[in-house]
Specification:
Shape: elongated
Largest sheet: none
Distance between the termini: 76 Å
Helix content: 55-70%
Order of helices and strands: HHHHH
Number of helices: 5
């Protein structure tokens, strides 16, 4: 194979992947909704601890595990991780307010028996 032909068969170099450092992205909405759900169903302090503990697990365990399998997920920089915790906390507050004003989900389900 000539050098010119060889150049056409080379795999192009990929740009290095940059960690997501945005303060708001589409996943922020997921964190808010998840926060609402757990803030509505369990103790808000426990919910906040769970939300805060999930972020390092996502970045240091889930993301590398999936990256080895070709899935880009949770490849975040610190600003994005902290904002995810912040949006989760907002959701927890909303969920807690739902629980205070509407009752817990299991109480609402009892109305439909």
């Amino acid at each position: 194979m000539t050098e010119q032909q060889n150049r056409h068969h080379e795999v192009p170099e990929r740009q290095p992947l940059r960690r997501n450092a945005r303060l708001y992205d589409a996943w922020s909405n997921v964190h808010i909704l998840t926060g609402i759900l757990i803030g509505w169903t369990i103790n808000p302090l426990v919910a906040l601890i769970l939300v805060a503990l999930y972020e390092p697990i996502e970045v240091f365990a889930v993301s590398p595990f999936l990256m080895k399998r070709g899935v880009i997920f949770g490849y975040e920089a610190l600003p994005n991780s902290l904002s995810d915790i912040f949006f989760g906390a907002i959701g927890i507050v909303i969920g807690f307010l739902f629980a205070q004003h509407l009752g817990h989900p299991q109480d609402i389900l009892l109305l439909f028996r």
